[in-house]
């Protein structure tokens, strides 16, 4: 499976952050591909793998992103952290529901996961993450410090 290539819509202007976002967006597209795969009958294990991969990688990414914002002296970091915490809790709640899935409910959950991720990334990356990248630019700070 090839990795998602980040589109201009999701570029922040910070190459390191954009590379990490591409990996996160890849999980979203994996969920969508699984959702549309009509030949696969049992999807629960794959759903769990996608969610656990997303849970792990967001921990890595969010930690690095928050440390970067701290180094920048970014004033909206606490709100940003809360958004990250809310996201992690939502992914954890999806993971906890996986053992209850049946053939009749797995595609519903995949649709719910895909819709949530797609909406969250669109809002978070295109608005919230761009704020601190813009703060970085306005203050003459270097992206290479990330």
TrEMBL record:
List the Pfam families hit by this protein, alphabetically. Answer: Hemerythrin (PF01814)
Keyword check for ATP-binding: no
Give the transmembrane ranges.
none
Does the record bear Mitochondrion in its keywords?
no
Q: Recorded GO terms, molecular function?
A: metal ion binding
CDD domains associated with the record: Hemerythrin
Identify the keywords attached in UniProt to this record, alphabetized: Iron, Metal-binding
Q: Which residues form the Hemerythrin-like domain?
A: 13-133
Protein family: Belongs to the hemerythrin family.
Could you identify this protein by its name? Hemerythrin family protein
Q: From which source organism is this entry?
A: Candidatus Eisenbergiella merdipullorum
Lineage runs: Bacteria, Bacillati, Bacillota, Clostridia, Lachnospirales
């Amino acid at each position: 499976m090839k990795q998602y290539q980040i589109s201009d819509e999701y570029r922040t202007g910070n190459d390191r952050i954009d590379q990490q976002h591409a990996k996160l967006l890849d999980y979203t597209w994996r969920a969508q591909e699984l959702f549309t795969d009509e030949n696969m009958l049992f999807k629960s294990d794959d759903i769990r793998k996608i969610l656990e991969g997303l849970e792990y990688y967001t921990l890595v990414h969010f930690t690095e992103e928050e440390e970067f914002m701290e180094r920048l002296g970014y004033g909206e970091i606490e709100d940003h952290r809360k958004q990250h915490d809310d996201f992690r809790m939502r992914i954890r709640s999806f993971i906890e529901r996986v053992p209850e899935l049946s053939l009749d409910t797995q595609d519903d959950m995949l649709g719910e996961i895909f819709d949530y991720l797609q909406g969250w990334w669109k809002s978070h990356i295109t608005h919230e993450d761009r704020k601190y990248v813009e703060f970085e630019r306005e203050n003459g700070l270097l992206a290479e410090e990330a």
